[in-house]
Amino acid sequence: MDGSRPKPTRLIALMNQKGGVGKTTTTVTLAAAYARAGRSTLVVDLDPQAHATLHLGVDPAAIEASVYDVLLDPASGLEGRVHSIAPNLDLLPAQTDLAAAEVEIAQAPDRNRRLSDALAAASGKYEFVLFDCPPSLGLLTLNGLVAAREVIIPMQAHFLALQGVGKLLETVRLVTQTVNPKLRVTGVVLCMHDTSSTHTQEVVADLEAFLAEQRTLDVPWKHARVLRPAIRRNIKLAECPSFGQTIFDYAPTAPGAADYKALAEGMLREWDAMLERRAETKPETKPESRPGSGPVTQPEAGTQATGDAPVEIVTRAGEIAPVSSGTAV
Question: Looking at the domain assignment, is residue 130 inside a domain?
Fold first, then answer.
């Protein structure tokens, strides 16, 4: 690939409407792995709990500006609001005041696009932008989904989690039909994984079978897959946020560090291969002016999802986890 040509920005929203599934850990650790690989990376903490901010060693009570200020005044961009955490790793932090942003911008006509507009001013600065979305579907999550081009779903391989995945997919479909037709689901990251459990193995098999059945459908998750490797259950991953460190600094030889490193390396290889193919087949095509030009595993030309049928995941036991298509956006 032509080294003089700037790389597009890959914008990834990590979301799950269930808390405690490893969403923030996955956001922060993938971002740290990308940064350690020499890729300029920004973490955007959209959760009023500010867990990603704390995980990266920043005290929300001690900062003067955060993503809250960006949402209130997107025209001012990111200047003075981004914290440098490590080489190639920056953070747009959150504060508890962020919860008030949903009320304060609720009537604004551009309320869903404020984060996207602010990031446009930083186009080309970062190769990766990861959004840690709160476990709810409100204006904060919608701002992340509008700014993003792809969604990664961290989850535990439990039966009830299958219903949650269906609900998340329905949310993404509604977003593509209303405010961001380019959004696609890249896949699922299995967190706190127990490979020895028969139940876990069956849930993963059911999930993979479901995703395989979606390949022929016109839905935003038609190319989604279970991302490998799964992240093994590891107490060190639970401990490191309390020290304000990533697993690579806190316990670099722990299984959690090895798993996230391997996951990030695999995603980087796919990303680089896609950029190589793009450069070879469309050398005259310029990257989009706004951040993001499509996820690594999905075509960027997004046709909107169609159909109102609810998403259903049929489990190995023959039970069905239906999800209503009436989720409000």
Answer: yes
Q: Rounded to an integer, what distance in angstroms lies between the CA atom of residue 219 and that of residue 222?
A: 6
DSSP 152-209: EEEE---HHHHHHHHHHHHHHHHHHHHT-TT-EEEEEEE-SB-TT-HHHHHHHHHHHH
How many angstroms separate the CA atoms of 103 and 168, rounded? 23
β-sheet bridge partners, residue 84: 90
Question: Rounded to the nearest 5 degrees, what angle is found at the Cα of 42, between the Cα atoms of 37 and 44?
Answer: 140
What average pLDDT does this structure show over 117-124?
A: 87
| Number of structural domains found in the chain | 1
CATH number of the domain that 112 lies in?
A: 3.40.50.300
Q: Alpha-carbon distance 20 to 5, whole Å?
A: 40
Give the DSSP H or E segment for 37. Answer: none
- For residue 226, being part of any structural domain is answered with yes
| Residue 294, pLDDT score | 41
Looking at every residue in the chain, the average pLDDT score rounds to 85
Cα separation of 245 and 240, whole Å?
5
Per the domain annotation, does 1 fall within a domain? no
In a domain, 327, yes or no: no
Which ranges of 244-311 does DSSP label H, i.e. alpha helix? 247-250, 255-281
Give the pLDDT score at 243.
97
Sorted by sequence, the CB contacts under 8 Å of residue 314 that are 6+ apart come out as 206, 210, 320, 321
Q: Which amino acid is at 49?
A: Q
Give the range of the structural domain holding residue 146, as residue numbers without chain letter: 10-322
Arithmetic mean of pLDDT, 266-289: 79
pLDDT digit string, tens, across residues 175-198: 999 999 999 999 999 999 988 888
Instruction: Calculate helix-pair angle for 159-178, 198-213, nearest 10 degrees.
Output: 30
pLDDT at 300 over 60: no
- Structural contact between residues 260 and 231, judged by C-beta atoms closer than 8 angstroms: yes
Q: What would the two tokens of residue 17 be? A: 């409407």
The percent of residues above 70 in pLDDT, for the chain, comes to 84
Question: Is residue 215 predicted with pLDDT exceeding 90?
Answer: yes
